[in-house]
Write a structure and sequence with these properties.
The protein is 39% helix and 20% strand. The radius of gyration is 24 Å and the shape is globular. By secondary structure, it is an alpha+beta fold. The chain is built from 13 helices and 22 strands.
C-alpha cells in the first residue's frame, strides 16, 4: 500500500496533514514519512483537540511527541467552546479554518486528510436520506482546488479495515475515538449498521461508490454550466424574477434555488434540505401575489408580485455603508470613535498609520468575498471564516461592522480581528479607534 500510487507528488512539496491520532490519519502520516526522502517532502501535522473527551489531551501529547521523534512540524489548537449549531458542522468549520491558517503560515501546496472509501459511502448515504442536489449526492471530491493550495484525500480508494491492517503490519500506533461507537451521531449509525450489510453484498462496494461519486461530479459540472447561464436570465439585483424562473426546466429551477440558498446561507447551508426547496417552489407557484414561508435561522422566503427574495429580520438595519470621521453610532447599537490614547491592546482597539492606508475610512456591513490580511498571518483570510471561528451568529454577522480604507482594504473587524495595518503601541501611528 503506497500513497504515491494514488496521488502524484512533486519534489519539495509542502504538505499539511490534518491528523486526529486515529487509525486513518496515523496511517496517512506514516505513508508520507515512507516517501519523504524520495520527494524531499516538508510535512506539517495539524491537530485539533475537540475538547469533548478526557482522552483527547493524552492524544495531543502523544502526537506532539511522535512528530518530534520523526522530525515533523507540529501545530495544534484546542476548541474551547461550541455555540448552539450542529456540533459536527461547527467542529468541521473550525477545524478547516485552522488547517487553512496552517497552510498559509507554511505556504504549503496541499492540505491532506485521511478520508477513505468508507467515509465517502457514509456521506453519500446520509445525503441521499436527508436530500440534496446532484453535487451534494456525490459526497466529496478527492482533490479540491482552493485559493493557493489543494485539499487532497489520497486514501479514498482504501477502506477503514485496510488502513487498520496497514497500521498493524507497520506497527503504527493510533488511538480509537470512543465517541465513534455511540449511536447518538447519525454517521455512526450508518457506519455500524448500513455499511456492514453493503460490504456483505460486495466487499469492494466502496469502489462502486467512488465510481458513482465521480459520475455525479461530471454530471454536476455540466449542469453547473447550464445553471450559470440560467442565473443570468433569472436573477435581478439579488432577487429572482418569477416569470423568467418559471420558464426554466423544473430541474434547473431546483438548481437555481440551491445556488441562491448557498450564497445566502454559506456555511449554514447544512440547515436546508429538500423539504425547504419544496416549500419555496410551492410559494413561487402559488397564485398569491404577496406571501412568505419561514426557513431555518430566522430567514424569510418572500414572494412579492414578480419577485422572490430571501430576507432576515435583521435586514432592516443591515446593508449599511458609512464614511467615518471621528465618531459613529452603528446599527447594532455599538459605536466606533477616535480616541487620544489607551493601554488597551485587545481587538476592541485599532491603531493605524494614515501613511499606510487611504483615507477616509469606511465602515460597512459584510459582503460576500470580503477578506482581511490578518495581523501575524502570511496571507488573507475570509471574513466569513472569522465569524465562524468566533461563533458569531448568522444574524449578528449581517450587522457586524467592517472597517476599510478608501481602496477597499479591510483594516479591522472590530472586536474580532486586527489586520496587518494595526500598529503596536511602540510603533508610529496617528489614529486610534475604539469599538464599544
Amino acid at each position: 500500500m503506497k500513497i504515491d500510487d494514488n496521488f502524484t507528488f512533486n519534489m519539495n512539496d509542502k504538505i499539511v496533514v490534518g491528523c486526529s491520532t486515529g487509525p486513518d490519519s496515523m496511517a496517512l502520516v506514516d505513508m508520507l514519512l515512507k516517501i519523504r526522502d524520495k520527494y524531499n517532502l516538508y510535512i506539517i501535522v495539524a491537530h485539533v483537540n475537540h475538547n469533548v473527551r478526557i482522552e483527547s489531551y493524552d492524544e495531543a501529547v502523544f502526537l506532539k511527541e511522535y512528530c518530534l521523534e520523526n522530525n515533523i512540524v507540529f501545530e495544534s489548537m484546542v476548541i474551547e467552546e461550541y455555540g448552539d449549531d450542529n456540533f459536527h458542522n461547527e467542529a468541521r468549520n473550525i477545524r478547516y479554518n485552522f488547517f487553512e491558517d496552517v497552510v498559509h503560515k507554511y505556504k504549503a501546496n496541499y492540505l491532506m486528510t485521511a478520508h477513505h472509501g468508507d467515509d465517502l459511502m457514509e456521506t453519500i448515504l446520509m445525503r441521499m436520506v436527508r436530500g440534496s442536489n446532484l453535487n451534494g449526492y456525490s459526497g466529496f471530491k478527492q482533490v479540491v482546488e482552493m485559493e493557493g493550495y489543494k485539499i487532497v484525500r489520497p486514501l479514498i480508494n482504501y477502506t477503514k479495515k485496510e488502513l487498520e491492517e496497514y497500521d498493524q503490519a507497520n506497527n503504527v500506533k493510533y488511538y480509537v475515538d470512543s465517541s465513534n461507537s455511540k449511536d447518538t451521531y447519525t454517521r455512526n449509525r450508518y457506519r455500524k449498521y448500513v455499511l456492514p450489510f453493503l460490504k456483505q453484498e460486495d466487499k469492494d462496494v466502496h469502489l462502486k461508490f467512488i465510481k458513482f461519486s465521480r459520475t455525479l461530479e461530471e454530471a454536476s459540472s455540466f449542469i453547473d454550466k447550464v445553471t450559470e447561464k440560467a442565473i443570468k436570465r433569472v436573477f435581478d439585483n439579488n432577487r429572482i424574477l418569477i416569470d423568467k424562473f418559471l420558464l426554466e426546466d423544473e430541474f434547473i429551477q431546483k438548481e437555481l434555488l440551491y445556488s441562491f440558498l448557498s450564497e445566502f446561507y454559506q456555511d449554514d447551508l447544512i440547515l436546508v434540505c429538500d423539504r425547504h426547496i419544496d416549500l419555496i417552489l410551492s410559494l413561487i407557484n402559488s397564485k398569491k401575489v404577496n406571501s412568505f414561508v419561514n426557513l431555518p435561522n430566522d430567514v424569510i422566503a418572500r414572494k412579492e408580485y414578480n419577485y422572490f427574495e430571501l430576507k432576515r429580520e435583521i435586514d432592516a438595519i443591515s446593508g449599511y455603508e458609512i464614511e467615518f470621521n471621528d465618531y459613529v453610532l452603528l446599527p447594532n447599537n455599538h459605536s466606533i470613535k477616535k480616541i487620544d490614547s489607551t493601554d488597551n491592546n485587545s481587538n476592541y482597539i485599532c491603531r493605524l498609520n494614515s501613511n499606510d492606508i487611504c483615507l477616509p475610512l469606511i465602515i460597512r456591513s459584510r459582503r460576500i468575498g470580503d477578506k482581511i490580511m490578518v495581523k501575524g498571518l502570511n496571507g488573507t483570510k475570509k471574513v466569513k471564516d472569522i465569524f465562524i471561528d468566533k461563533k458569531i451568529s448568522i444574524i449578528e454577522r449581517d450587522s457586524w461592522p467592517i472597517v476599510l480604507d478608501s481602496k477597499g482594504q479591510v483594516v479591522w473587524i472590530p472586536g474580532l480581528k486586527k489586520s496587518k495595518f494595526d500598529k503596536k503601541k511602540t510603533d508610529t501611528y496617528d489614529i486610534i479607534l475604539e469599538y464599544s
